[in-house]
From TrEMBL:
Organism, scientific name: Moryella indoligenes
CDD domains: PBP2_phosphate_like_1 (cd13653)
Protein name stated in the entry: Phosphate transport system substrate-binding protein
One Pfam family matching this protein: PBP_like_2
Entry GO CC: plasma membrane
Gene Ontology biological-process annotations: phosphate ion transport
Length: 272
């Protein structure tokens, strides 16, 4: 009799655990969602993950900010549910069976120390600075001093976007190549002669973002396309492999209308 009663209680608890608010069944989505990739997407994906977990307490979301290239590799090798990239997939990556979904658009801010008097650059000046053609701030209206170039490591989506837009791929003469957006911001903030680039969504008051071709990087200039140095935030999945119900629930949520306001609040523009 005791054994029978125990089995009945266990069954009842099982039913309760599998039933969500309003009787909604959650057994198909309970579990884990793993994402890996772009450090530039850390802010937006972090707040989306927190919001998702509040709505789905039965699901645990984890994100490993390793860089766009690493995230693309991780999803290709089946080591995570969703890869995060701050650049579009290459033709070679698409041919490997990967699919991209644009989540949002982010500006790549060109950043200098707050004390730097420079406020505007053209794309041409930007290219000349990063390739070493221009080496002193006085040549472009700044104070006399050697320009110190700070960039990202090979494989970074931010670097790929910046170099493609400025047509400087393979030609930049970086003093330092750093492995995260935060490291670039911190390094530029500590050196009055430094210049670098970073996700607009990641900026705080530590550095100053200069205008490009007279246009400041902000949500409006991203939305209307007038700010020239911008790139997509991309979700990467495998074309012929189904993701778990939990991962699908997260994937659908962050593209929903409810998520758009959250995305906008991080300083990037939601994709249409």
């Amino acid at each position: 009799m005791k054994k029978k009663t125990g089995r009945m209680i266990g069954m009842a608890l099982g039913i309760l655990l599998l039933t969500g608010c309003g009787g909604r069944q959650v057994e198909e989505t309970a579990g884990y969602v793993t994402a890996d990739g772009s450090t530039s997407m850390e802010k937006v994906i972090g707040v989306l993950g927190e919001s998702f977990e509040e709505l789905h307490p039965e699901i645990r979301f984890t994100y490993n900010p390793t860089g766009s290239g690493s995230g693309i590799t991780a999803v290709a090798e089946g080591r995570c549910d969703i890869g995060l990239s701050s650049r579009s997939l290459s033709e070679e990556e698409r041919n490997k069976g990967l699919r991209e979904t644009v989540l949002a658009y982010d500006g790549i801010a060109v950043i200098v120390h707050p004390d730097n008097p420079l406020s505007d650059m053209t794309i041409e000046q930007l290219a000349a600075v990063f390739t070493g053609e221009i080496q002193n701030w006085s040549e472009i209206g700044g104070a006399d001093g050697e320009i110190v170039l700070i960039g990202r490591e090979a494989g970074s989506g931010t670097r790929d976007g910046f170099e493609n837009i400025t047509k400087t791929a393979g030609s930049c003469r970086y003093r330092q190549e750093l492995t995260s957006t935060g490291d670039v911001i911190t390094t530029v903030a500590a050196n009055p002669h430094a210049i670098g680039y970073a996700s607009l969504a990641s900026l705080k008051g530590q550095v100053k973002a200069v205008c490009i071709n007279g246009i400041a990087p902000n949500a409006q200039s991203l939305r209307d396309g007038s700010y020239a140095v911008q790139r997509p935030f991309v979700l990467v999945t495998r074309e012929k492999a189904e993701i778990s119900p939990a991962a699908q629930a997260f994937f659908d949520y962050i593209q929903s209308e409810d998520a758009r306001e959250i995305i906008s609040g991080t300083g990037v523009v939601p994709a249409d």
